[in-house]
Amino acid sequence: MKVALLILLLISIGIIKSFDINSIEDSHWESDEGFEYHKCWKNLTGYYTEFALSSYNTMFPTPYGVIPVSFYEGGVVTTDIKGKQMYVHYGVVAQNLTTWGQFYAYGKNQTQYVVSNTSCIAMKLQFPFPEKLPKFKKVGSTKIGQVDVDVWIVKGKQQCNVTKSCILIQKDSCIPMSANFGNKDKSNLGFSLLNYYRYENTPHYDKFQLPSQCWGIKPKDNEDDKQNKNKAVNSLFVNEVEQEEHFGDNQQAPSMRIAKNNPYYQQPPQLKNVKNNKHHKQQETQDPDLIKTTTKTSTKTTSYSRAIDSPSQHHSNVPKSINFHHLF
């Protein structure tokens, strides 16, 4: 990846004393002035991180239109940028549904796989692996606790029309600490917060090994995919999804990827009355990745356990995908 010449280093960079996505002036997003390829990721081959993402009423461009979504997601993601492969272990809570599973994506054969319980579904790759990360612009600095961080903003091809986003990077390092997203329309407020845990600037290659239950499974043809995608949309976020327009942007909400990538999802009968079930018990999953997330990251333990532990809620084959345009 090329690093843009720092011609515009003379731009004023202030201190953001009380940080919030709306404390950054809108003018920073309104032109390409000052945006550059971040030096930290000039030779980045990939990354590994655990993450927790909370969203309230945030507008996201999706294959089904720009819609406000509220959800929680936690898990593990690792990406090999040069090799164009990705692994995600996820747990998502949205629309009173809780789902978890593993997602595998391979750019070389343009295929993605979703593993839930012991089943595997193969689909054609739903997003392109970008050749390089987007450009960033430094707009200030602040603190997370007592840790000094620089504030960098980023804008996607279409996302900039509806939301604003920034990432907080530990000062004098290349470690992302947190990312913030907010609706551009201040009359319809919405915010998302993404935290990174145990970030490493190298992929965990062992995670890309496709499990045996996916061997020999091939994607469905286009017509089946289209029919099943519509079924998925009707079964999840049915009250929110109103359009079928494809915005062509990689900055998609994780919860929207649930509907997009899940051709076989049907709401389990036991979930229909989940609001009225006040006595369902919780038990901890035995999945190694999720145990690692809940036991080692104290700040995520409570929320993530809620996202995955209800036995009445984790039988759906809901897939998930994240790409590094979304994370950064």
From TrEMBL:
<feature type="region of interest" description="Disordered">
    <location>
        <begin position="261"/>
        <end position="328"/>
    </location>
</feature>
<feature type="signal peptide">
    <location>
        <begin position="1"/>
        <end position="18"/>
    </location>
</feature>
<dbReference type="Pfam" id="PF25544">
    <property type="entry name" value="Ependymin_amoebozoa"/>
</dbReference>
<dbReference type="InterPro" id="IPR040310">
    <property type="entry name" value="DDB_G0292248"/>
</dbReference>
<feature type="compositionally biased region" description="Polar residues">
    <location>
        <begin position="310"/>
        <end position="320"/>
    </location>
</feature>
<feature type="compositionally biased region" description="Low complexity">
    <location>
        <begin position="292"/>
        <end position="303"/>
    </location>
</feature>
<protein>
    <submittedName>
        <fullName>Uncharacterized protein</fullName>
    </submittedName>
</protein>
<keyword id="KW-0732">Signal</keyword>
